Amino acid sequence: MDHVLVAHQKNEALISGSPRGNLSDLYPTWLSARELLLNRRDPYSAEITREIQMGYYGRTIDASRPEDPTNQQAFAYPLYVVFLVAPLVKIPFPIVRVICFWLLLGLTGLSVFLWLHVLKWRVSCIALATLIVLTLGTFPAVQGIKLQQLSLLVAFLIAAAVALLSSGRLTLAGILLALAMIKPQLTVPLAGWLMLWAISGWQRRWKVATSFLVCLAALVCGGELLLHGWLREFSSAVLAYRGYAAGGALLEQMLPRAIAIPVLALLLASVAAGCWYVRKAAVEDEGFLYMTSLVLAVTLLVPPMYPPHYQLLLLPGVFLLARDSQPTNVAFRFLYVLSAGLIVWSWLLAIVLGGASFFTVRAQQFWAAPLWPTVLFPVPVIACLGWMAFERVPSRSREGVTE
Predict the structure, then answer these.
(1) Total domains in the fold of the chain
(2) Most buried pick, 38, 74, 196, 340, via CB within 10 A?
């Protein structure tokens, strides 16, 4: 990241005149929260957007200059994200970056432990440390930590919420799930599945649904008290964001749009049918675990853009495949080996280029090679998860464990 990718980006920016500031994905949120809470300024306003650009890019961007980026870096979060960022607004941003770097590093490592707890996969301390190191050594984790991306916080909140469900702490699980709604594009599919699960066993599970809805309503109303009409401004900001930042959904990057949309619709319908089938399963049942992992994995296909750090949602699915699968079918074995091979490819190329960068700057020319699997990797993982879920879960559910 440092010696090849970032070095390449700096050289390209120097040649083209493209602006480079702090380039922290946390900065737009931090600045917007600070200006709203301390100075009562509208974070969705054009003035705040220009100030964000001054810090993020080092200057405001100019649409008439072809070398300038198109991403305006405007504030496009639900307003209630400021409640999570509030403790940091009086701290200088360089210090905030350091704090969040280590915080996200720790939370991502803790997510590994939480998912192993949810999956009831007992491993030795050495194996746990190895899994944490390997997870932190993937490009999605490295990218998210380096950019201080709130996606990693959301991934942790989701892991913590599901872990609390598995421990029977339904109220706190619902609260954390509501806090994860700071990125609705990552949380809405899981929230929909868990609400269906809660309604299907309302007498035992009402606490998770009630706490989620009450906490989310409190966040929305709290945002309204801070800025009247923020929902309308947020909707406009999201529409604008889709125009200037969206690089296309994952399937649209691989298939023509006319094919990608029907494929996505069919896949979502299949997952929804699976959720309905196992909606009464207990939280420790294999049906619940597989469908939760599959819902999180398929979530990557829904957003209009696909940054690599979203792949932290694949963690439970990857761990399930590593724990359970015994590839016997030729097609499944191919998908399984392909998934593993794509990860190993990234690691090997990163090691080779990182080492070569100490001896020659030509290593920067191949900066994209370790990232080639980034777009493809979720596809075989989703296929393997779907294969296992729809092949093994029904039979187990018929034998079934329900609450």
Answers:
(1) 1
(2) 74
For residue 335, the surrounding DSSP H or E stretch is helix 330-356
User: What distances in angstroms separate CA 166 from CA 108, 120, 158, 195, 282, one per listed residue?
Assistant: 19, 10, 12, 15, 9
Taking the C-alpha atoms of residue 191 and residue 179, their distance in angstroms, rounded to an integer, is: 11
- 22-39 mean pLDDT: 95
Q: What is the pTM of this model?
A: 0.92
Backbone angles phi, psi at 277, to 5 degrees: -65, -40
Closest CA to 173 of 210, 131, 124: 210
Sign of the alpha-carbon torsion through 232, 305, 270, 156 = negative
Cα–Cα distance, 181 to 202 (Å, whole number)? 22
Write out the residue range of the structural domain in which residue 66 sits: 2-399
Separation CA 185–CA 176 (nearest Å): 16
Model confidence pLDDT, tens digit, residues 211-230? 999 999 999 999 999 999 99
Q: How far is it between the farthest Cα atoms of the chain?
A: 65
Q: 148 with 26: CB under 8 angstroms?
A: yes
- Token pair, residue 118, equals 């949810």
Torsion over CA: 248, 251, 255, 259 (sign): negative
Closest CA to 189 of 273, 102, 302: 302
Q: What is the pLDDT of residues 221-259, one digit of tens each?
A: 999 999 999 999 999 999 888 877 766 777 777 778 788
CB 105 within 8 A of CB 98: no
Q: What is the DSSP letter of 21?
A: S
